[in-house]
Amino acid sequence: MSVFRKLMKHEKFQPLRFVFIGGLATLVHILVAAILIFSFPLLHVYLINITAFLFAFMFSFLGHQYITFQKEGSIVKFLGMSLLGFLLNNIILTLGLLFSLPDFYALVIATMCVPLLTYVVSKNLIFKGSANG
């Protein structure tokens, strides 16, 4: 069995797959935010953050369902967990702005702080369905 297949199938590599998909979702969030911040400088940073979050949310859900956990997941539960993570993200963003960080730096820091919580909740509460197959 190739190394790639082992990474894709074996449960002990699930945290690595989570980091990979979560990292890509975070990159989607940051790239969408960067495009919007630099293309539409008059848009409010919270509107930009919401838009970037929605793109990253869909990427994350599908990636975790088909690659990380390889099980059916509840998009409703994932949305609930993601919204709580997004609330935490916005609290951190607000703190960054209060400390006079530039919008983009505050947004990047806020976006990078939530993944561990997401993994624990996703593994134990969201992706418990039958295996994809």
TrEMBL record:
<keyword id="KW-1133">Transmembrane helix</keyword>
<dbReference type="Pfam" id="PF04138">
    <property type="entry name" value="GtrA_DPMS_TM"/>
</dbReference>
<comment type="similarity">
    <text>Belongs to the GtrA family.</text>
</comment>
<dbReference type="InterPro" id="IPR051401">
    <property type="entry name" value="GtrA_CellWall_Glycosyl"/>
</dbReference>
<feature type="transmembrane region" description="Helical">
    <location>
        <begin position="75"/>
        <end position="98"/>
    </location>
</feature>
<feature type="transmembrane region" description="Helical">
    <location>
        <begin position="104"/>
        <end position="122"/>
    </location>
</feature>
<dbReference type="InterPro" id="IPR007267">
    <property type="entry name" value="GtrA_DPMS_TM"/>
</dbReference>
<feature type="transmembrane region" description="Helical">
    <location>
        <begin position="44"/>
        <end position="63"/>
    </location>
</feature>
<keyword id="KW-0472">Membrane</keyword>
<feature type="domain" description="GtrA/DPMS transmembrane">
    <location>
        <begin position="17"/>
        <end position="127"/>
    </location>
</feature>
<protein>
    <submittedName>
        <fullName>GtrA family protein</fullName>
    </submittedName>
</protein>
<feature type="transmembrane region" description="Helical">
    <location>
        <begin position="16"/>
        <end position="38"/>
    </location>
</feature>
<keyword id="KW-0812">Transmembrane</keyword>
